[in-house]
Structure formats: C-alpha cells, structure tokens
Amino acid sequence: MTTTEQPLPLTNGEEWATAFMAALREEMRQTGETFSDLDWRQAEACAEFCRTNNCYANLSREQTVNLWGFGTVRPIFYSFERGEAWIRLWELAEPTGIGNPQLYELWRQELDADGIGATGYFIPTENAAADTMPAPLVSIIFAMRMFMAYSPWGAEFAANTADFMSHALLHSGLAQKLDGAQTYDKRIDVDGNQCS
What domain of life does the UniProt record list for this protein's source (predicted)? Predict the structure, then answer.
C-alpha cells in the first residue's frame, strides 16, 4: 500500500488537501520517485478544488455513482457538507443524450450565473489540445437538472426518480407548500403522494 492509499483525515477540504499533498511528498521521499510536471499539476488542481469546495478526492477506481438507471460514472470528488458527488461534465454526454457542445454551453451559462453545481476547476490532462477547452466538473445536482430540462430521456428520468422525488418532497416540507402542484407528469398531494 502506498502512502496515498492510506486513509487521510476527512474533516474538511482544507485539512484533506493539506494531508493529501503532504502524503504525496512523503511518498516521493520514501520511494525516491519524482512526479512529472503533469502529475504535480493534477495533484495541485485536486488539492485546490478540495480547499475551495470543502470536499475530498475519490481515490477509489471502483467507486461509482448510479445515474438513475442511465449508467454509472466515477465521481472525482465528494462534498464534506452534503456528500454530493462531483463528476467530469463530459461523462454526462452519453447518459443524458446531450451532445458535448450543448453540455459545455449549459455549463458555461450556469457558471456565469453562479449556478449551483458548476465549477471552473478542471483536472489537467496529458493531451495538451484537450486542455485548451477545460473539462469542467459538475455536481450530481447539475446532472439531475440536465436530465430534467434538456435530455431527450426526461420522461424516463422522471419515471425512474418518481419515488425518490416524492420522498424528497414529503420529507423536505415542499409537499406542504406545493399541495396540488403539477410535477413533470403527475400531481403530488399534501402528503407527497402521486395523484391521478
């Protein structure tokens, strides 16, 4: 097991980033290996994102997030506060059915509007040409909005998440406030139940 595979303190993004960079430096010291410029830039980008967004990096290659029946993606980061997963924008193209140019434009609009779930940080890649158009990171909340508002599979997404959304409406108190409101294709009553 290398130093970076050992558990690191997971209390907040600042502490995690500091411990992560220290663990990398210690691993280089112990092994005598050095990181390439790209490896070091990726590590610094990772640490900076964690500091800024109070999250930690997903160091597991096996850990994935299910996109509500439309495939799985490997999260890059998890939020300390909300447990929210952050993923690469481009990984949403196939599951959502939205092309990369449109996804990028929607991301830019959200970023410009200080929307929740879009960020300007990206992980540098080996392909310098790809670095000219950043590979933005987005939250699972952003992914949900893409499915609901822009995906050709919006109705299927609504069907796949109906129970989850009803539960969320009921337990958040929104069902009381939205009594009788029309959702995607169902009415929700005051108890959060679907009506005909």
Answer: Bacteria
Contacts of 99 (CB under 8 A, 6+ apart): 93
Q: Where are the beta strands (DSSP E) in 59-139?
A: 65-66, 72-73, 77-79, 85-88, 118-122, 136-139
**What six digits make up the tokens of 186?**
């169902």
Please, what sign has the CA dihedral across residues 144, 145, 151, 156? positive
Burial of residue 115 (CB within 10 Å: 0-12, 13-18, 19+) is middle
Do 26 and 3 contact (CB within 8 A), yes or no? yes
Name the E strands within 109-156.
Answer: 118-122, 136-139
Tell me the residue length of the chain.
Answer: 196
Contact 78, 58 (CB under 8 A): yes
pLDDT at position 4 = 45
* Residue type present at position 42: Q
C-alpha distances in Å from residue 50, one per residue of 46, 149, 152? 6, 29, 33
Q: Report the mean per-residue pLDDT for the chain.
A: 80
- For residue 99, give the DSSP letter: -
pLDDT above 60 (res 22): yes
**Count of CB atoms situated within 10 Å of the CB of 77:** 25
- What's the pLDDT score for residue 6? 46
Segment 143-162 mean pLDDT: 91
